[in-house]
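go over this record:
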Amino acid sequence: MSRIGKKPIEVPSKAKATISDGLVTIESGNAKQELALRPEVNVSWDESEKHLVVSIAEGHEDNRFARAMWGTTRALLQNMIEGVTKGFEKKLEVVGVGWSAVVAGPNLEMKVGFANPVVVPIPQGLDVKVEKSIITVNGRDKQAVGEFAATVRSKRKPEPYNGKGVKYFGEVIRRKSGKAFGS
């Protein structure tokens, strides 16, 4: 049994959930997200309790993949509700002398020690801001926010000798001593 899948998903009063033909739509104001359901999983709306209930479809109870999708579907729906009501945020920090980042139109341009600036296109639906050396990524879709932050970090990962690179805000880089320690 999935411990996560069994939990009902509470829908706040400012959000609205619609289930139709294998598609779940969550709306709040002008924000809207949709999730196509797998055939192994059912989602139902409990009007009295004002929450969504995720369950395994009949005939798939012994299917291992169906049990995995049960918990995954519940987590995706919970993230959709949180995304349309509050949104998600990731912060990155650019560490290095002379290194910087700037939002230039639909792109994020970073000067991170290469001869040319690194240009990363900003996906639709994400809001990227740069203050000093902190890059803030905001959006409604948790997966899109995390994926863009990981892409930006991968352009120049932090290195353990000098600690330079693009790292998540608050990430601790384990430092190495280098050659000087041995002599």
Notes: The mean pLDDT is 91. The longest helix spans residues 64-85.
